[in-house]
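FORM 12-B: Structure-to-Sequence Request
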């Protein structure tokens, strides 16, 4: 298959070193990244339509995302190896082709099991293409221009993907069948595949070391056990929660798999993951930052969409339009950061972006079912700017001490950062979901205690609602009173869910505040050492 690709599809219109070629490579990568984000955001916004079309419950709906993330986690670690062994252009093309074909197949799927199969196939394609995109940018752009390229990758790829994915996802899922979202992804993907063929240059292939099967298998055990544990620890059927046999057994498997993973990767002659890279301080900080940022980036649309749909009762198009602000904030702030990267460096933008992210998580605590549009806009604006400012510089920070001449080491570093970003995305939904489930019971009890059925205020509200149901819906007197009580209970439940949602992001804000404080302290220490001539690198 690789021979057929290089014989019929590998054109390379520009000679090596042409100044225009690297920018066209960036444009194609941005288009494909936008489309991948479009797929993620579109699924979140159209979740109610997908649930209705396939008659799904909450757990079955969660598997649409979980199956995708499982296959993504399976393929991301081998992405660097495939690129080195078979060429990064070919591997990137292969990942994109798998992803776009999987989205096309979803358009014609009437079966829920088949939907999961195609989502898994799409996750495998995404797991191959995402790390390749950063690796190709790292190989294509010289070190001076790399921060600009990565910031534009963040700004246009992620910001544009969120913005256009939100708007188009909302429109098509509300006005048309949700399958149109996946068909548009396929059409855009064909343009991206043509761009890969015409503008990318293939890298030299070389023999690779024997595959690290023990490390890879133990990594999969850790990922799958962690995903299944966090996904189901608070599931309705798991009534014992943290103390159930299911949770304890998966926790034991997770611990054993993690210990085996550390052992194999430290003793293997040719490890799949270079754990020694975590001894490099900038890479360690960037790795932690990418996990947290990835969780915020993907957790925000997942849970905000749920709250806006279920608690504020907004239609899909309105939800999508509000998330467009989030995407535009990422795009504009990321582009400005990239253009100024030569003057402001990468450390201070990383810190400023993390500070804004922290502030946005704390702002979440003021969000209620009665919040107006300006409250939501301001929250998403601050969060989007924080992500746009931080994501590109944090990625550059992680790669700043990795030798560029070692393509395999650089590729493994980009794969590790991508894995951590995607792990943050995968586990954020589960971890934040656990916090929301735990706190929702608390808030429902708290708000329920405030409802005094004998108080004049409650009686007046119930009477007004009962009158409304009788006059507007023609309900009998007794039924109108019952409906008014149900409506008040529903309001309490919805506000309890929103309050629990706010608590989850407040916890994320605390973690971000600690991370940001550590980064700033290290930056100040570096500045002092540089000033007194004691900094060694």
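FORM 12-B RESPONSE
SEQUENCE OUT:
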């Amino acid at each position: 298959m690789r021979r057929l690709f290089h014989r019929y599809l590998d054109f390379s219109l520009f000679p090596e070193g042409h100044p225009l070629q690297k920018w066209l490579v960036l444009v194609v990568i941005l288009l494909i990244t936008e489309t991948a984000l479009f797929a993620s955001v579109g699924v979140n916004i159209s979740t109610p339509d997908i649930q209705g079309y396939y008659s799904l419950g909450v757990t079955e709906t969660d598997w649409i995302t979980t199956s995708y993330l499982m296959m993504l986690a399976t393929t991301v670690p081998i992405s660097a190896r495939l690129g080195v062994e078979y060429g990064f252009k070919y591997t990137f093309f292969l990942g994109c082709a798998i992803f776009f074909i999987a989205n096309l197949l979803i358009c014609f799927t009437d079966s829920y099991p088949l939907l999961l199969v195609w989502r898994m196939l799409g996750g495998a394609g995404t797991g191959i293409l995402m790390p390749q995109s950063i690796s190709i940018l790292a190989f294509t752009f010289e070190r001076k221009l790399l921060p600009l390229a990565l910031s534009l990758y963040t700004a246009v790829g992620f910001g544009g993907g969120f913005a256009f994915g939100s708007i188009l996802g909302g429109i098509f899922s509300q006005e048309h069948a949700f399958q149109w979202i996946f068909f548009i992804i396929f059409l855009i993907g064909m343009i991206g595949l043509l761009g890969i063929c015409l503008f990318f240059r293939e890298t030299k292939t070389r023999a690779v070391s024997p595959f690290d099967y023990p490390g890879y298998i133990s990594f999969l055990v850790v990922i799958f056990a962690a995903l299944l544990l966090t996904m189901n620890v608070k599931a309705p059927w798991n009534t014992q929660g943290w103390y159930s046999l299911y949770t304890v057994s998966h926790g034991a498997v997770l611990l054993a798999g993690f210990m085996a993973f550390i052992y194999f990767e430290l003793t293997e002659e040719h490890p799949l993951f270079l754990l020694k890279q975590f001894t490099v301080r900038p890479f360690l900080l960037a790795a932690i930052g990418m996990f947290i940022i990835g969780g915020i980036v993907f957790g925000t649309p997942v849970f905000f969409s749920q709250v806006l749909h279920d608690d504020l009762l907004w239609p899909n198009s309105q939800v999508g339009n509000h998330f467009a602000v989030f995407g535009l904030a990422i795009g504009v702030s990321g582009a400005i950061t990239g253009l100024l990267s030569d003057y402001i460096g990468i450390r201070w933008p990383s810190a400023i972006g993390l500070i804004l992210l922290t502030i946005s998580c704390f702002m979440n605590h003021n969000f209620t079912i009665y919040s107006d549009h300006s409250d939501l806009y301001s929250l998403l604006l601050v969060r989007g700017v924080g992500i746009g400012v931080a994501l590109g510089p944090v990625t550059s920070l992680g790669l700043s001490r990795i030798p560029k001449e070692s393509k395999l080491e650089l590729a493994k570093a980009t794969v590790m950062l991508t894995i951590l970003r995607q792990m943050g995305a995968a586990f954020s939904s589960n971890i934040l979901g656990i916090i929301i489930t735990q706190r929702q019971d608390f808030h429902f009890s708290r708000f329920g205690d405030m409802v005094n059925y004998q108080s004049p205020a409650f009686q007046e509200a119930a009477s007004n609602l009962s009158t409304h149901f009788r006059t507007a819906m023609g309900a009998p007197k007794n039924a109108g009173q019952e409906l008014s009580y149900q409506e008040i209970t529903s309001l309490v439940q919805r506000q309890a869910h929103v309050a629990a949602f706010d608590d989850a992001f407040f916890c994320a804000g605390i973690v971000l505040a600690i991370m940001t404080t550590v980064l700033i302290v290290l930056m100040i220490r570096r500045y002092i050492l540089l000033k007194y001539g004691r900094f060694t690198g």
